[in-house]
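Hey team,

Filing this mostly as a record. A colleague (T.K.) asked me to run one chain through the structure pipeline before their review meeting, and I want the input and output archived in the tracker in case anyone asks later how it was produced. No errors, nothing strange. Just documentation.

Input sequence:
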Amino acid sequence: MIRFVFVFLLSGLCSLASIAADDATAADHQALRKLKSDVVAAVNKRDYPAMQQFMHRPFMATLITQDHFEDTDKLKDYFETLFTRPTLRMSKVSIEADADALSQIYEGTFALNKGTTKEHYELADGRAFDIDGRWTAVSRKENGEWKLLAVHTGTNFLDNPVLNAIEKSVLWFAAGGVLAGLVVGFALGWLLRRRAEKRGA
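Output structure:
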């Protein structure tokens, strides 16, 4: 009888521990989803103080342009340069990010995830590009709070709207060059014929 009671109590304690662990894991996933949403919102609003709040210190970030940062001030300078540089100056940048699945949480302190992005870029000259990308992120839980430790973003460099636009520009430029060459050729031919006719007269 005592043995039965002991086994019953032990089973109950294990069940309670399992429920508590499941609740903790669910809370971590919810916190990680909120962290992703908060980071995306901060980027879209260009809210740099919020970005600092969500970043672990130290952190690592490699963006779609393959620029690499480990300092929030340099990250801020990078984003601001997009809106002030003389060529390909942006007027608006916005992103959406979705995870492929739930984060993989290791030892309750590190989380690894990956997913997709839809990035919208509007240039000051009126052109706009929508780019599909991929991201991989590592988060760390410190003092009960999840922070973004590292993130890497990228896109298909062989097939994206920016390359397609450049390709079209090159084709138009080439076509314009051919047309200009034909016009110049016809003009020179006409002038040479006129001179020949005058000499013959």
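Quick notes for T.K.: The chain has two domains: 19-155, 158-201. The two ends are 133 Å apart (CA to CA).
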